[in-house]
């Protein structure tokens, strides 16, 4: 399986995936880490790991459609079986998303379908929920609306701030995302033609 990872910043989820890949020796190839920002901190880690990195800057394109087309061209050079969004902070066009149907996954820091969009930890605190978490899902044209593959749950504590809650969720993201990627590499998860997630019995 050829894997391409897209980031925009810190890249801690990408890092967790790369570490699990190295440690567990998945039968897959980490083909490239691609960022829309040249200053993404995660690029240095990928380089250090010997993974090819590319920057496709959104600033070089006048609209989403042309940016997504350029990004798709770069990604497709690697013939990816799986494209992983790991803190990639761009809304993607329907054409791009549909090109990768069943091959494109994202991690979102909430228990979808609640708290889509940005500032999910703030949203959770404002709503007064007692549990919160993260979701890995297949990407569909509806933002943060694709079929759920797996979720991790954390408690919301009375003394929580946005930061303390974000830290607790992030720790779980770093466990959840590599696990799901491994399932996909091992063909234990797939998206059916009807748009549902099918999991193998053993996951
Ligand atoms: C994570 O919280 C992820 O759920 C969200 O963006 C953040 C990215 O963090 N999509 P990092 O770049 O992986 O450290």
TrEMBL record:
Recorded catalytic activity of this chain's protein: N(1)-(5-phospho-beta-D-ribosyl)glycinamide + (6R)-10-formyltetrahydrofolate = N(2)-formyl-N(1)-(5-phospho-beta-D-ribosyl)glycinamide + (6S)-5,6,7,8-tetrahydrofolate + H(+)
Gene behind this protein: purN
InterPro entries: Formyl_transf_N (IPR002376), Formyl_transf_N_sf (IPR036477), GART (IPR004607)
Enzyme class: transferase
Gene3D superfamilies: Formyl transferase, N-terminal domain
Residues holding (6R)-10-formyltetrahydrofolate: 64, 89-92, 106
EC number from the UniProt entry: 2.1.2.2
Pathway assigned in UniProt: Purine metabolism; IMP biosynthesis via de novo pathway; N(2)-formyl-N(1)-(5-phospho-D-ribosyl)glycinamide from N(1)-(5-phospho-D-ribosyl)glycinamide (10-formyl THF route): step 1/1
Function: Catalyzes the transfer of a formyl group from 10-formyltetrahydrofolate to 5-phospho-ribosyl-glycinamide (GAR), producing 5-phospho-ribosyl-N-formylglycinamide (FGAR) and tetrahydrofolate.
Protein name: Phosphoribosylglycinamide formyltransferase
The UniProt record lists the keyword Transferase: yes
């Amino acid at each position: 399986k050829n894997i391409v990872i897209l980031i925009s910043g810190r890249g801690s989820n990408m890092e967790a995936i790369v570490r699990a890949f190295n440690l567990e020796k998945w039968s897959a190839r980490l083909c490239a880490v691609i960022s829309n920002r040249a200053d993404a901190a995660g690029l240095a880690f990928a380089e250090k790991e010997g993974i090819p990195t590319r920057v496709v800057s959104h600033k070089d394109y006048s609209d989403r459609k042309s940016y997504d087309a350029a990004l798709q061209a770069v990604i497709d050079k690697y013939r990816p079986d799986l494209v992983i969004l790991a803190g990639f902070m761009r809304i993607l066009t329907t054409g791009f998303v549909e090109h990768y149907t069943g091959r494109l996954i994202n991690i979102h820091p909430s228990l979808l379908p609640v708290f889509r969009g940005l500032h999910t930890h703030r949203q959770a605190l404002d709503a007064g929920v007692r549990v919160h978490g993260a979701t890995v899902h297949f990407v569909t044209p509806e933002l943060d609306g694709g079929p759920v593959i797996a979720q991790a749950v954390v408690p919301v504590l009375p003394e929580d701030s946005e930061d303390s809650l974000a830290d607790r969720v992030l720790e779980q993201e770093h466990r959840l995302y590599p696990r799901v990627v491994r399932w996909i590499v091992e063909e234990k998860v797939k998206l059916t033609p009807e748009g549902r997630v099918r999991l193998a019995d053993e996951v």
